[in-house]
Structure formats: C-alpha cells, structure tokens
Amino acid sequence: MSDDVDAVIETMRERAVPSADERAELAATVDELIERTQEVVADLEVEADVMQVGSTARDTWLPGERDIDIFVRFPESLSREELESAGLTIGHQVLPESHEEYAEHPYVVGEFAGFQVDIVPCYDVDDAAEIRSAVDRTPFHTRYIDEQLTAALAREVCVCKQFFTGIGVYGSNLRRRGFSGYLTELLVLEYGGFRPLLEAGADWNPPVRLDPEDHGSATFDDSLVVIDPTDPERNVAAVLSDENLARFQHFARQFLAEPSPALFEPIERDPIDESAVRAAFEQRGTTPLAITFEAPAVVEDQLWPQLDRSMDGIATELERRGFDVFRTDAFVADGDVLLLLELAVAERPHIERHVGPPVGVRKHAKSFYDKYADEDVYGPFITADRYVVERDREFVTATAFLESDAFLDVALGKDVEQMLEAEFSVVEDVATLADQFGREFARYLDPNPRGM
Amino acid sequence: MSDDVDAVIETMRERAVPSADERAELAATVDELIERTQEVVADLEVEADVMQVGSTARDTWLPGERDIDIFVRFPESLSREELESAGLTIGHQVLPESHEEYAEHPYVVGEFAGFQVDIVPCYDVDDAAEIRSAVDRTPFHTRYIDEQLTAALAREVCVCKQFFTGIGVYGSNLRRRGFSGYLTELLVLEYGGFRPLLEAGADWNPPVRLDPEDHGSATFDDSLVVIDPTDPERNVAAVLSDENLARFQHFARQFLAEPSPALFEPIERDPIDESAVRAAFEQRGTTPLAITFEAPAVVEDQLWPQLDRSMDGIATELERRGFDVFRTDAFVADGDVLLLLELAVAERPHIERHVGPPVGVRKHAKSFYDKYADEDVYGPFITADRYVVERDREFVTATAFLESDAFLDVALGKDVEQMLEAEFSVVEDVATLADQFGREFARYLDPNPRGM
After folding, report:
1. What whole-number distance in Å separates Cα of residue B48 and Cα of residue A212?
2. Nearest to B285 among A322, A396, A445 (CB)
3. Which of chain A's residues have a Cβ under 8 Å away from the Cβ of B362?
4. How far apart are CA B141 and CA B442, in angstroms?
5. Span B362-391, pLDDT tens digits
6. So what's the ipTM on this one?
7. What DSSP string describes A255-286?
8. Cβ pair B284:A396 closer than 8 A
9. Which of A281, A139, A359 is nearest to B254 (CA)?
10. What is the rounded CA–CA span in Å between residue A407 and residue A426?
11. What global pTM score does this model have?
C-alpha cells in the first residue's frame, strides 16, 4: 500500500531537479545579464561589483522556476540616495522592459530572455552582522551556501523545497510564513539530506535550536531557531509560523509512514458555490459574518500582517462584548478582502450584568449606588459583597456592533483602517460571496493539515 | 424631608419592646413551665436542672414573639441515648400536645398557654469550649448576655433586631444566613447601642474582626468575625452571608442619611401573574429555564444548603458546556421547588472546537490524529502548534442537557438528587409557573438591596 521511502525520494530527486537543458539556458542567460550589468556599471563610472544570488545561483532551484536575482554591490561610502539612484539607473539600462518595486529600498524588475529578473542594489559590507539594509545580507548567504553545499546536497535541497511546496509550507513571505529557501538549505545541510531532516523533524519537540556555526549569542522565543551562520544574532526561522512548523512535522511523519509522491504536489481546491457554502454553515449551526472591502494598494508583505492584526483586533473586541468567536479567516480575491468571522454566539440578551465595588468600600460603593439608583436598570442589588446592576447592553448583535461607529475604534492595520473608513459592508448571508471567494470558502470549510 | 436619626430610633424603642402586660404574661407562663418541668424531673428521679434560654430569657424579644425555650441540663455521665430518651420523656410530660423535632438530637415542641415551647435536653458541661453538641452552648450564651446586658441595652437589641428584620437580614437559619439573636446582642454590647453600631457598620471595610473578651485564638476566612465570649475558637457570625453583611452596611448608611421607620418593616411583595412574568423576561431578552420538583421532606436548614449546592452544580456544568448563566435563584412554594436558570446563551452551534496536543509531542499527537482522522469531524487541522478538530457538540441546547441522563451526574444535594431521580420537569415557558411562584418571581424581577 505504500512505496518505500527511499524509492519515492529517488523519484523526486529526478523530478525536482532542473534538466541539463534548463540549466544550460539559465547559465547562458545569467552570464549575459552579468556581462551587461558590468558594462553598464563601467559606463556609469561607479565602483560596484555584480553577482548572482538566490536559488538559481546556488543550484537549489526547482524545475520551471525562471527567477534570476542580480545584486549590484556598492561601497559603503555611497549615501543611501546615491545607491538607490544608481541601482535604478543600472536596472533600467540592463532591462529595458522593466518597472520598480520596493522592499527596504527600490529595485528594478523586468523580463529578459523569458526569465523574470530582479536587479537589486546593496551595500558591500565586511560582515553580515553590520548590514545597512536586509538585502545586504543576501550575498553572504549565497557565499556561505556556495561554500558548504555539494552538488548532491543541492539536489536534496530541491527535493525538500518540492516537499515543502507540496505540503504548503514553502515561502517566507508574510502571508505564508513558511520555510525560506535559505532556511531549507541550512536544514538540509545541518542534517545531511532530505530523509535525515524528515526523521529529525518528525521527532522535534519545539522549541528546537540549531546553530550550524556554533556562534549564536542571542536568545529567541521562536519555536524553531536556526542561528544564521553569517550573523550570530539572527534567527533564520523567525518568520516561520508555529502552524507551518507543526505541518512540516505532521507531514514528515506521514511521509515516513506512508511515502507518496502526492505529498510533493500542492493541493488545488475547487471553488464551491453559494448553495454549498450555505449548506455547510447551516450544518455547522454557527453564525458566519463577513466584512468586505477593497484591498488597500500595498504589497502582500504589508497587506497580510495588517489583515492578521485587524482580524485579531476585531475578534478580541467581539469576544469582550460577549460574542463568542468560533473561527476566523481572511480571504483576498480579485482585489477585495473578506474578513470572515464565524461566531458561536452572535446575539446576547438586551441586558448585561455590571458588577460594582464592594459595599464595604464606602466611598466607591456610595458613588456607584447613587449613580444607578435612579437609572432605568435592574438593581442596584447586592451579590456577595458587591453592588450589581443589570443594565441595557450597548450592542445586542455582533452585526449591530460592526455597523456602529465603535467598530473602527478597534485596533486595525493602518491601510486596512483607511479602506474601512472609506467603505465596507457587513454581510450576514456570506454564501452570496461564494462567486468571488469560492476557492477560499472551500479551503475554510474542509480544513486539513495542509492548511490551504 | 427626613426625620432625625435619634427621633426615629426613640420611636422604635417604644414600638420594638414588648408591653408590660406582654412581659407579665410571658413571665408567668415561664414560671409555670419551669415549675412543671422541675416536678417531672423530680418524679423521674433523674439528676438535671431546668433553665430558660433564648431571647425571651434575655429580655431581647420583640413584641408578638411567643417562643419559650426551656433547656434541661443533664450530667455528662449520661450516655447520649439516655439523655435523648429522658429529654423526650420530660418534654412530652410537660407538653401533652407536642411533637418531636430534630436538630443535633431530638427535642419536643408543643403549645402551652398560647406560647410555642421548645423543651430541649442538653449536657451540663463546665466550659463552652468542651460542649458535646451545639445546644450545650446555649446556656453559656444566656448566662453571658444576662450578666452583660443592662435593661437599656436590651431595648437597643430589640430595636436592632427590628431593624434587621425590616431590612431582611435577621435570622441565622441556613436559608436566610443573616444575623442571629446572639450575634445581634454581642454587636449591640460591643458598640454600646443601636446607633453606634449603625455608625460603625456603615464604615466597616470587611474583613472585620471583633473579640469582646479579647481571647480569640483561631483565624477565620469570614468577612465578619465575632469571637464567641464563651468559646475562643468560635466565630458567632460564621453563618452570616456576605450579602447580608453588605445589606446591613448599605441600610446602615441609608438610615443614617435618611432615617425612616419604614426600614424597620419588612417589604411584602405582591405576587405577579403569568403575563407580567412573560413580559419581564421578554424585555430582558434572556432565556429563562425552570427545573421543578417536589421539595424533599427535610427541614429548611437541610433543604436550603442542598438547593444552593445543586444550583451551583447545575450552573457550573451549564457554563462548562457553553451555556452562559445570567442569574439563578431557588424558589420554594407549596411544597414544590423551582430552580430558576436565567440564561444569556441557551443554544450553541452544532459543533464545538476540540483542541488536541501540540504536534511536537509525537506520541500524544499521533494518537489524537489517528483517533479523529477517520471520524466525521472537521479536521484534524493545525492551529498554532496543535491539532484541532471541530466535532459534534453533545448538547446544542441547555434544555437538551437538562433532559438528558448526564444532568443527574451534576453535583447535587443528596435529598434533592433523590427527588430529581424520581421526577422533575424542565419548563421553558417559566411564566406558566407564576400561579404558584408569583411572589418569588416578583422578588426576582425587581431586585433591590433588601434582597427578598
């Protein structure tokens, strides 16, 4: 009923590694790009060196990947403005068909010979611990991996990345919060291959701390800590969520028990339709509510942390007001956001209990009693040693709260708050949103450890 | 707008003290009873002395009270059986029209010349700290109060008892859990009168500890501690509830601010009818539920603690199952009990969240995952570092739980449990119970600090 673990891994070693033709094409393209870039640098009479970084530089890329990262390293004597300006000029000259994107500073993205190419300026610092912006670290990573990784281990990294992709934990962007390429490389290096990494990971009892160069100085709260070999104060796994660490452990065990190539292929969900969504929530007996609004025009790495923070803020406030939150999720599709609040309790009594001070604390007790004695409340009466009143509740339904002015006082992400201030809808019949968000509802309503 | 404090108290001094005629009638009756009892004791050739105890012995009784307590004190050499048997024999001979009641041991209750008379056997011990049953202590209390209380202070005690009666905190039975007669006497003694007691009580910030004889050795958790002058290890206020202590403080302040004879008269509630009960709960927007059953045939001091315990057990279990309890109460009328559960949340979703072990704890995690992987649940999926499933909830409504076998597993009082095992009803339309419990519903739905 199950293949042998090594046999499946061997199959994946063939599948997860680019063909000789692919590699040759990439190598030729990279050579040409580096040459062009060096020429532009020379023409501009700036002092800078040019290097390829990233997985295509380290031979740890997957078949079909067509990303080339070219870094232009400038001396530290340049000001930040000079570096940014020179970086953009070079990028646009190398890649005529290009546009600018922005991480910690701007860089140029364009197509070249069928590849997507990033041309990124950075500082040439002496030590990764003294970087001036996050991208300055990348050349150190490339150099370290280049020195450590044999061709055989590079293939193991490819298998591992393919596995991480299949189980939905690959990628360190702030939506996914999975394993970065560099983290994957370090883990394979640490354990000496994909299978030993699986076997170790299956047995991890977090927190787990790895320190390949045995030079870590800082402590971290994260469940997985992998000290950066190029920087003793950095945890390479800082972005990895607890969910994705647990998913890796779960599927490591599953693969070792029942090895199957299927785990290396991501699940594609089919969207479900309005009636399926409606039926599912009816069967659950919960009360779903949706807040929909236009996604703010920010990159995903800015959007998702804001959606997470907003969701937390809203759920916390609803709970505080007595509306029990069962599960939440954030969907983004076609430029719109849907914050899904699945409530276990969406309605409360008209009144709420309000407990006052102990009667024995005379001054406070008197002012509480005097305040409520003539108000239209039940009480004040005495329970245990305190005054209590039962007074009208501000919001009897969760919808009433979300549609009130009080809603926007909740802690929300900055850009999310701006969009909500402009316009949003509260939708009780969430099934009507299935046309746009059918794939997300499918994932939500059939959860499994792949979590996607 | 308000009378002067002293003027009202002076009025009450006249009203709260029995008339000369009443006192003469009582004195004559007590003399006759003691003489008769002594004759019976002499005839039986047992060694015992006879004494009057209680408020009528101490001149701290209220007008209209017609209770006489006669204690027959036997030597400690008698066995418990001999004492009980002799006590009952004497009681029945003194009071031909009588029956037996039971506290720590049996005693005889009967009518004599228009008075209700208790004839109670007890042991004649040397020291109140060495009593063999609670009643042995009473003669010590009577002797102590007799020695300390002037006629003027006895009148203050009467005023105070009348005040406690008016504000609903008088009586140390286990339903009321208020101030006992002895506690009232000690408090008036301690402060030297009713008004000084009010002024002190208005300012108490519990816990408050009084020790008239300055001999207390034990510590107590109670909010009010009054060390028994006849027993250094006993708190006379042990039965007093926090509610009744707080009520006394509340009304002490109110009386001092706005003295009125009305506070010396208990509130009588008019019963409310079915439509009033229904309208009230509709306005509150809560979900009331009633459990009704025949009251077990036990004395009130056994019934009420059991009702309290049962109510606690039921409310705790409902809360644990997600049904938020807003307020509860126990009603007894015409031999029936009504346990009222006013719920804020009476219905939950069909499913409940069930959080499993951390995925990192391999053995537990695996057995959780294997258990649920093939069951009809949502999941297992992973949230934070743990497996989670959403499985069918056992009881979706509070009524379903109360009507299930699981209900009787709740911690209930022994006799209450027996009655529930025999028969009970769960009533959702509680207004239909207004005919029988209309007065109790009136109190429940218009709560105030008098708490009755």
Report:
1. 93
2. A396
3. 202-203, 205, 253
4. 39
5. 999 999 999 999 899 999 999 999 999 999
6. 0.91
7. HHHS--GGGGSPPPPPP--HHHHHHHHHHHT-
8. no
9. A359
10. 11
11. 0.86
